[in-house]
């Protein structure tokens, strides 16, 4: 149509028209313009309408006579006037065609938006006429507006989406630096359980309700968004201090804790929130989100159902984790990991019944503690290699001591959850025993309660098949994990290790003493060997012996030693091997 518009010619018309005398025109062309259903008119550089089609009058809902006396600029909305004027001048000046989306003044039912094109025609008398041609694009503009609004909306909950919150953070971070804002990232605790047990439909209903409660709580609809899944973000604007934001978060935590009515039943969930306040150096929008995210993970780690405020310490820790993770891969290759062995002894005689293999990492002349590196290795998956290596190494060590005439009854090896749940675990244990040539009945695997409870069915199968080989299991850190005791009967277990926190407190705290004695009698009743760990003093050792604890382990007797130190302590007579088979005795009885 643009090409057509260029060729259009207008016949000279009656004198009341201000059409330039020599404007080219033709009846057929004019008829074509009428038939196009589009806006078509001649204007001068100032926008005065020289002529218009009847279709145009119909389209704009003005009488044609009125149009012929009006200026185009009066027909367009105020906001578009300047641009239209520029378009006309530009077109007249350089004679190049132009195009603009123009908002119309509207009000009497005409189109809101016109896609307006202007082309230039020089009249014989030297004056200029511009042909305007335009389509009604109101519907298209409306759908565009809806689309852009929807592009910022989370379709499920009706709160903002990720793109929206990013835009808002950018606005806040750049615009009103002095006022202060806070970004809170929240994750629902246990949402997966709701989804898994009640189904996705209820999960969605819950998310909707959470969105609604959040909007009610922070009041300004603009500040709530969902990042995806069960992660919501609150952008709290106008928060001069952290404390202002914290007050709102406390309300949010309370509001989310109230029961949700889903499908006729009350469902309770909690939320963990990370807060980043804008005090301090300005950050990019992704850095704000990252900070809130770090703080949120800290809130989860601290036990959920709480908020946690970002501090640079969190970054420092992440940094350390990152560095540990990076050097860990090389450390495996460089052989920086070692096993040390801590004796497990009879409380009466102090003679050695078994040893526990404990991993050591010496990196750049510094020892990195297992409490630090084991969780990192669990996260990055290296624990599978490290754990398999520890198993092989510990079994081989037991065989080497056998060959030296140092008979250590049992070797205890720690197994982490990630390692235990790996499909290769069974094979790696069997290979370690076979390669070392030791009896399976001399290996004890230490597992925690959480390992058993993550997937009890799979755990039971695995324990049974390993137990069939002759391998035994001890529950490590007993009393700190899962609260149900029924699993003790379900799984084929041989020993309980009383957590060292109870042992540490048992002299001063009657409560700790009660727990220790309860665990000891529980073990007795169930035919399990009781091992107390972290025994540091003679008083603790005596008390445990008096209460009938089978075996003890701790600095009172010996620290974890390198193989060479262990061997020389045995040769020097500082460590004495015991005889007798405490595990078989107990299990057989
Ligand atoms: P754990 O299995 O509870 O190991 C006992 C921890 O208590 C060891 O810490 C040991 O050195 C320490 N300990 C022993 N006697 C005493 C005492 O009298 N007082 C005190 N305060 N502590 C004592 P360590 O070697 O730092 O290991 C920490 C944890 O790292 C272990 O706790 C275990 O969970 C994990 N870990 C160590 N080696 C391995 C391994 O090869 N594989 C896996 N998966 N985890 C390991
Ligand atoms: Ca252990
Ligand atoms: Ca332990």
UniProtKB/TrEMBL annotation:
Q: What SUPFAM superfamilies does this protein's entry cite?
A: EAL domain-like, Nucleotide cyclase, PYP-like sensor domain (PAS domain)
Residue ranges crossing the lipid bilayer per the database entry: none
Per UniProt, residues of the EAL domain are 321-574
Name the UniProt record assigns to this protein: Diguanylate cyclase (GGDEF)-like protein
PROSITE patterns per the record?
A: EAL (PS50883), GGDEF (PS50887)
Instruction: Please provide an example of a Pfam family that matches this protein in its UniProt record.
Output: EAL
Query: Which CDD domains did the record assign?
Result: EAL, GGDEF, PAS
- InterPro entries linked: Biofilm_reg_signaling (IPR052155), EAL_dom (IPR001633), EAL_sf (IPR035919), GGDEF_dom (IPR000160), Nucleotide_cyclase (IPR029787), PAS (IPR000014), PAS-like_dom_sf (IPR035965), Rev_trsase/Diguanyl_cyclase (IPR043128)
Domain GGDEF positions: 179-312
